[in-house]
Design goal:
The complex is a heterodimer of chains A (477) and B (192). Chain A is mostly helical and 477 residues long. Chain A has 19 helices and four strands. Chain A has helices at residues 3-20, 27-45, 76-96, 105-121, 128-143, 152-178, 185-202, 211-216, 221-245, 247-251, 253-275, 280-301, 303-331, 340-343, 345-358, 367-380, 382-406, 437-456, 462-471; strands at residues 51-54, 57-60, 64-67, 70-73. In chain A, a hairpin with a 2-residue loop joins strand 3 (64-67) and strand 4. Chain A is globular and about 65 Å long. The chains are: A mainly alpha (477), B mainly alpha (192).
């Protein structure tokens, strides 16, 4: 019996079940959370390709599943990534009922996770691009629940992912069949350019990030956080697999320079736009870009230690984004206006703490990995190190400014920007009804606690990070 | 004889830019799918190339039902004359590019590279010109069809063909969802 076949059949059944139960308040969230947590742990720890006995029944779980002549395979290189995606799903489904992100959130989320699992497990892995495109389509259903307003940014997401798919598929052919190596510099440059086009889209590198801010104010922040983390994480694992599989890419200084340049650009761009931002919801989007930039800088600066840091940053990004998503979604009923924080102090504090964690402020989940990277960059890339520190301080200032606006006393105003430009901010999508207040507080307390816990005890993420790095044999120190 | 589908592809790609009636666009799109399958059959066995027609007809069917259910307004982002001239200019450029094997694909026939160039260029033009879900979808499908004509030469595997076909159907279904189930936004459905 194939382990992946079991997983995909279970996911299909769950998607149908949660679709049927979509009008129930919390049942689909609970079922999906428990099931995806089980699947995640199964993928991470199940013994594959060896005889086992389950309740006295002899069993053998195969790591490979053949479908239409193509194998989907769970191997050490992708198990940590696939397991991670399902655990992210378990977290977001489990907390989702507190913010009611829409009736399509759970079934479409399950379909997206299944497709992303397909992307990470298909062999040859170059065909993952098609699954990523299909997953982006499923993400549209997560972002735009039935009855919500269709947005242009959503179409931009589809257009961008289609282009990434074409670029990566073509690159895959060049790599697999034409035999591109460092001794064929013309072809290698072509591959790097095409692959670069694909990955700047998957990693949200500006200007290919533009679908994110354009939907940030129109969709549930919680749904946006989920979609951003699963799509970006998959892109990151995909990038690491490329680097792990092709020796000439690891050796080519152009690749590491390009990664560093992209990282530095993302940090600078994200920080500048975040501090100049007039919309509370868009701040997190730009801080997220800066955070992804830090990951790229880590990989580009030193493949061996940087990969571990990038994977660690990916793991804690989930906590930061979930906390921000919860807080921002719970704030949506009252808007994001001057004084809104006094009406919803718990939610506002959570959203602000989530942004601080994304920016890697001390005591938050994002800090320890950045601290490790800073120590490394001080020797290899002092410019990057200085930029990271400046970025952290600038974002801290922006968050403090927003804190003052949100908690300012006085009559409530229409949603405004903190600089007083008077630009109005749209209220949340109509479908995002807010769950019971108590549930929201429990969810925020849980995630806030996790954010601080991972900030103080970063070693909590080490077992998973170690497993992920061990799978990438050529990138391991 | 093999240049007939290239002419058909050019004609349908031009019509997709120029025509404004949604129903007619979908009929033209169906004809474009047939032409693409014809061109793909230069590199693939006909029964395999037929997968493209089947997937295309399903996608067109979904889009036709969507149009029937939503009655989308015509998008008047620019005049027919402007779009026609833009299409002619882009197609001229595509003819120029398509003279050479710019993708560097070995054993690709000149008809295939020409058709791929035309479709990819015209798809990009549509993505630049239009903003409604239906027209963006048709633009994306045109772009993908051009890519697939060339890609079929280098990757003829049935599994990949099926996955790419599912992308076309998925795009049509997502656009149908955005049009029928989600509330259309003013920007998305009303033009500018």
């Amino acid at each position: 019996m194939s382990a992946l076949a079991l997983v995909f059949i279970l996911l299909a059944l769950l998607a149908i079940l949660t679709l049927v139960l979509r009008r129930k308040t919390y049942l689909p969230f609970v079922i999906a959370s428990v099931a995806t947590a089980t699947v995640g742990l199964f993928i991470l720890y199940a013994p594959l390709d060896e005889a086992i006995s389950l309740l006295g029944i002899p069993l053998r779980l195969d790591s490979t599943w053949q479908i239409l002549g193509r194998p989907l395979s769970l191997d050490p290189q992708n198990r940590a990534g696939v397991g991670f995606l399902f655990l992210v799903g378990a977290l977001f489904f489990g907390l989702g009922w507190a913010v009611a992100p829409g009736r399509s959130f759970v079934p479409a989320g399950l379909i997206s996770l299944g497709l992303l699992a397909g992307a990470l497990t298909i062999q040859p892995f170059l065909f993952a691009a098609i699954f990523l495109e299909l997953a982006a389509m499923a993400c549209v259903l997560i972002l735009i629940p039935p009855g919500s307003r269709s947005e242009k940014g959503i179409l931009n997401l589809l257009v961008l992912y289609s282009m990434a798919m074409m670029a990566i598929l073509f690159t895959g052919w060049l790599l697999e069949n034409v035999g591109v190596t460092s001794v064929t510099p013309e072809l290698a440059l072509r591959v790097i350019l095409l692959l670069g086009l694909g990955f700047v889209i998957l990693m949200f590198v500006p200007p290919f990030h533009y679908w994110l801010p354009s939907v940030a104010e129109r969709v549930s922040p919680y749904s946006l956080a989920f979609v951003a983390i699963i799509l970006q994480s998959s892109g990151m694992f995909f990038l690491l697999r490329f680097l792990d599989n092709f020796a000439w890419m690891r050796a080519d200084p152009l690749i590491s320079s390009a990664l560093q340049a992209a990282g530095i650009f993302m940090i600078a761009f994200g920080t500048v736009v975040a501090i100049a931002q007039i919309s509370f919801l868009k701040i997190a989007v730009y801080v997220l870009l800066a955070d992804i930039g830090v990951s790229l800088l880590a990989i580009g600066s030193d493949l061996e230690t940087g990969t571990g840091i990038a994977i660690g940053l990916t793991s804690v990004r989930v906590i930061s984004l979930a906390l921000w998503g919860l807080g921002a979604a719970l704030m949506s009923r009252g808007g994001y206006s001057k004084g809104a924080g006094r009406a919803a102090p718990f939610a506002s504090a959570a959203a602000l703490l989530g942004v601080l964690s994304l920016a890697g402020q001390p005591l938050t989940a994002g800090f320890p990995w950045r601290w490790t990277l800073l120590a490394q960059l001080s020797e290899s890339s002092p410019i990057g190190a200085v930029l990271m520190v400046v970025s952290m301080l600038a974002i801290l200032w922006a968050v403090l400014r927003w804190t003052r606006v949100l908690f300012e006393s006085g009559p409530a105003e229409a949603d405004i920007d903190p600089q007083g430009s008077g630009a109005e901010i749209e209220p949340q999508a109509a479908d995002a009804e807010i769950g019971p207040r108590a549930a929201g507080r429990v969810a925020i307390t849980f995630m806030g606690g996790a954010c601080l816990l991972w900030g103080i005890f970063p070693q909590l993420a080490i077992p998973w990070v170690s497993q992920a790095i061990a799978g990438l044999a050529n990138l391991s120190p | 004889m093999n240049w007939v589908p290239v002419v058909l592809v050019a004609a349908t790609a031009f019509a997709l830019v120029a025509v404004e009636r949604p129903g007619l666009q979908i009929a033209v799109l169906a004809a474009q799918y047939a032409s693409v399958a014809w061109l793909s059959s230069l590199a693939l066995p006909p029964q395999v190339a037929a997968v493209k027609v089947v997937a295309g007809m399903i996608a067109c069917g979904v889009l036709a039902l969507t149009v029937a259910g939503s009655r989308p307004r015509n998008e008047s982002v620019s005049g027919t004359a402007f779009r026609g001239i833009a299409a002619i200019l882009i197609m001229g450029a595509a003819f120029g590019i398509g003279q050479t094997n710019w993708m560097g694909i070995p054993d690709i026939r000149p008809e295939a590279i020409m058709a791929a160039s035309i479709l990819m260029s015209m798809g990009l033009l549509q993505l630049g010109l239009f903003r409604t879900p239906l027209r963006v979808c048709i633009g994306l499908i045109t772009l993908l069809s051009g890519f697939e004509i060339a890609y079929a030469v280098i990757e003829p595997a049935l599994a990949i063909l099926a996955l790419l076909a599912s992308v076309h159907i998925g795009l049509a279904m997502v656009v149908s969802y955005l049009t029928l189930v989600a509330r259309p936004s003013g920007l998305a459905e009303g033009g500018e």
